[in-house]
Specification:
Layout lengths: L8 E9 L6 E7 L9 E3 L4 E5 L2 E6 L13 E7 L10 E12 L4 E9 L4 E7 L3 E8 L4 E9 L7 E10 L2 E10 L5 E10 L26 H4 L4 E8 L10 E14 L4 E11 L6 E5 L7 E2 L4 E5 L2 E7 L6 E5 L6 E3 L8 E6 L5 E5 L9 E5 L5 E6 L8 E3 L5 E5 L6 E5 L5 E3 L9 E6 L5 E5 L24 E5 L6 E5 L19 E6 L3 E6 L4 E6 L10 E5 L19 E2 L5 E5 L4 E5 L6 E5 L8 E6 L8 E6 L10 E6 L9
Antiparallel strand pairs: 1-17, 2-16, 3-6, 4-5, 5-16, 6-15, 7-12, 7-16, 8-9, 8-15, 9-10, 10-11, 12-13, 13-14, 17-21, 18-19, 18-22, 20-21, 23-46, 24-25, 25-26, 26-27, 28-29, 29-30, 30-31, 32-33, 33-34, 34-35, 36-37, 37-38, 38-39, 40-41, 41-42, 42-43, 44-45, 45-46
Amino acid sequence: MIIKKDLALTALALLASVPTASAQTLLLSDNFDDEILTGWTQGTLWQMSEINHQFVVSGSFGPMQTNNPTATHAAGMHSIPTSGPLPDNQTLEMRADLVGASQNDAWAGIPFLWKPEIQGYMFFKDQDEVALLKFWNGAISHAWFFYDNRPLKNQNVTLVLALTRRGADLEITTRVLDKDNANAVLFERTVTDTPQADPVLPNRAARGALSGPDLPGTPWAVAQAPTDVELALQWANSQAAPQPPAEVIFDNLEVWQYESPQLAIQNAVVLAWPVTQGQFVLERAPSVSGPWDPVTDAWWRTNAGQCQVSVLAPASMTLFRLNRAGFPSYIPFDRAQGEIVEGVAVDQAGNVYVAVGGPGGPRNGQIWKFSPTGEKAVLIDFGTPGVTGLTTDALGNVYVARDVAPNNGVYRVSPAGEAVRLPGTERIIFPNSLAFDPEGNLFVTESFSFDPPLTSYAYTNYIAPAFGRGGIWRIPPQGAAELWLRDDLLSGTGSLAFLLPYPCGANGIGYFENAFYVANTERSLVVRIPVLSSGAPGTIETVAQVPDPDPSFLAFGPPVPDGLALDVQGNIYVPVINRQAVIRINPDGKAWTTLATMADHLDAPASLAFGTTLAERTSLFVTSLSMVPGFAGPSLIKIDTGIPGWPLP
């Protein structure tokens, strides 16, 4: 039985679930930010180039030759470090962002390739077609597993080609993901290549191109893993040549190998309701009388004006409802009790964590945990000053930056409240903000250091005679902290000497599409640092000078940013401490919008984090330091941005 409440509509379904892979290996990664196409090879009749940190394949062909379609094929090729057969129940997965194509009929292609035989599988896509090709015999012989006329978004999507061994068979999965909508699946299809001659399309079924029956025999990956991948362009119009020359643009190539257990089919429900304004919590219960608990394990998307959610429902009777009671929009804190708040983070279950502490106060050095509906508990009381930035991982651990010696460093706090300082982080002089990359590396901003060269500032209350530059540290999942980058653009200027006894440079940090974005407090900047395929930092660049949302505060100096967050569209969110405002800056840094002000209880806003649950994906949680009395006071508020935040790794 399913209850309808508010706008919830439900339907029975089956949901396929896969356990988390226990082993993952990144075989190849290239975000094309190093300006050198290291390891890539190309042919002679076309051009492969790197333009604006993206991979461009272009070619000037005649019309496609239906008896020899490879004559209008262009590609860049890169080897991958594989050996031996693909182990059973393991997957090789290739992902590449399709930035766009210059014209229709310029197919973008991503293949796995075996050399020297020149055989493989290739997934093609353009504006209104998707296709999967098997080729062999030096790419002269072809068989099409599928070819569909399917109008699909052809810009800012991710193409996926995955090979999974199942005994003597090979599953080939193709996907198209929408990068503008949290990687929503636009297309997915799986076919199986067996040792027998498998069903394929008739000759000339794909754009009139010559093809034949499937080649029987052991699937290639079962005998030997592929040797190379390509980023390809295929001109597919047999009636006309491309005008101007055809071009396909790729970015962010990754090749992974991981364990891929068999799918388990489980009972589930699909719930759908029209997209509406306001915040809702999806809840479930075994009966009408409850107890009603928030749903935290749902898969969701927005499609054709509908919110659609798939939820496991193993019990014979499970009830679902939409409840308007979500996280409170405003939680005040007591300055008199030392409840000065700074860092904020949200875990995947929707719990919100806040760093609480003021010098000499009874709440000094605590992390508070608020449930998805706002109930408070103290996760940990360090008992000593210094708690700044926070973040969380998929296991529910909370990571805390602590900035006061001798306890400075980064601490991992378990859900049970047990803390351990991560190795090497005691060398980080002033850890401030934290962010993970997709590989599980934790990056930490350091607002200043004591590394040479040292600079003296005209402070009235020194904590040291001179200071070094700011920077970013990297903490591998199983390793010790290591300095990742120092740069003048991550360093302070001493402009806040009247307020702080140290320079404050690198502060808020966030990850988005193979780059980190950092707010520099005293320089009033947002900068971008690409992550190269080697893991090293690319060239740091300024994205935006933080705009002034309220010039009436000009007497307080230029705008002072603190934290930073990003949404799925690449917009940058920054709290401006001395303007009592939170602003959203467009990805190109050229336009901005004020989202909240003093009227929304802001009082020196410091840190922010997006919600993670269905009800709160577009919610931005913001803490206010309240540096001087007489204003709204310290608080945690919630803003609806209308755009989902960039998901947690």
